[in-house]
Amino acid sequence: GKIRASARAAYTTFMNPPSMRVSLQSRDVQALTRRRGIGITNNLLKEGTPLPYAERVDKGVLGVYVTVAEERPELVKFFFNFARGRWKQNPQVEIHEGEKVVLKIISGGGRRRCVIDGELTKLETATTVEIHPGALNVLVPADMA
What we know:
18% of the residues lie in helices and 36% in strands. By secondary structure, the chain is an alpha+beta fold. A 4-stranded antiparallel sheet has the order 2-1-6-9, with no helix packed on it. A 3-stranded antiparallel sheet has the order 3-4-5, with no helix packed on it. It is globular and about 55 Å long.
């Protein structure tokens, strides 16, 4: 059901893309802009694969992906490149990184929602996302340690 819901959400977003005026601050970007979409990932995504996953999970940075596509033809290119795993070669996406990202929504229609770990949730007007490198303890079998 989650894949079907994600596909339906992507289609709805494509047919009627939201637009929001946001303030975005991180280590390498400070912007006040109107954008269609912003994605924040735990570490930067691996290039060249259609499934988005971090190339290195231990780098200790957040990947910030800002969609700059405005018109439907640009959105088509964005989704096509996204499906092919073309993050860095995609002119419809700005890529930034940092240990802390502050996102403030200044204006944007109605309900603000976001996806966190695959779950749809309410997006607050001001949101701070911060990474804590090395904070997760992982148990492994003794022979792998």
